[in-house]
């Protein structure tokens, strides 16, 4: 509903190896210039304001396209996965409670369920999967 059938045909017939997000912006710029020449836009300041806002929106789209163009290398996800699991293991061992006054042989680890460490791990692992 945003394009006429003719505009849709022109859009589809345009050969481009990349996204064609910029085509409607060019059309908008041409129509705004034509409207200024025909007197539908009465002031050049209004035309300039329209074009500035359109260019700002177009630059946001190109920035988004740039983020889509460059993928995150696989090694980053592997490093983050290793960091999360290493952090969890270190916290699991490091957050054990040892009471040296009890005279444990060899200072063995106390065995208990580290609830907050487990919650922290579940949150980090969940974020990692997202």
From TrEMBL:
Q: Which organism is it from?
A: Sitta europaea
Q: What is this protein called?
A: Bestrophin homolog
Q: What does this protein do?
A: Forms chloride channels.
Its chief place of residence is membrane
Which Gene Ontology molecular-function terms are recorded? chloride channel activity
One GO term of the cellular component aspect? chloride channel complex
Coiled-coil portions: none
As for subcellular location, the record says: Cell membrane; Membrane
Which InterPro entries does the entry link to? Bestrophin, Bestrophin-like
Reaction catalysed by this enzyme: chloride(in) = chloride(out)
This protein's UniProt keywords: Cell membrane, Chloride, Chloride channel, Ion channel, Ion transport, Membrane, Transmembrane, Transmembrane helix, Transport
**Where are the bilayer-spanning segments?**
82-98, 110-127
What family is this protein classified in? Belongs to the anion channel-forming bestrophin (TC 1.A.46) family. Calcium-sensitive chloride channel subfamily.
Q: How does it sit in the membrane?
A: Multi-pass membrane protein
């Amino acid at each position: 509903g945003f394009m006429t059938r003719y505009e849709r045909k022109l859009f589809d017939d345009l050969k481009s190896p990349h996204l064609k997000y910029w085509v409607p912006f060019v059309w908008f710029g041409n129509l705004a210039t034509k409207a200024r020449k025909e007197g539908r836009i009465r002031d050049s300041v209004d035309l300039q304001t329209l074009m500035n806002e359109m260019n700002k929106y177009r630059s946001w789209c190109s920035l988004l396209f740039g983020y889509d163009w460059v993928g995150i290398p696989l090694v980053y996800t592997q490093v983050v996965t290793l960091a999360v699991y290493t952090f969890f293991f270190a916290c699991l061992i490091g957050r054990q409670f040892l009471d040296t006054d009890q005279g444990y042989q060899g200072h063995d680890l106390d065995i208990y369920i580290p609830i907050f460490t487990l919650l922290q791990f579940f949150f980090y692992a969940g974020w990692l999967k997202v």
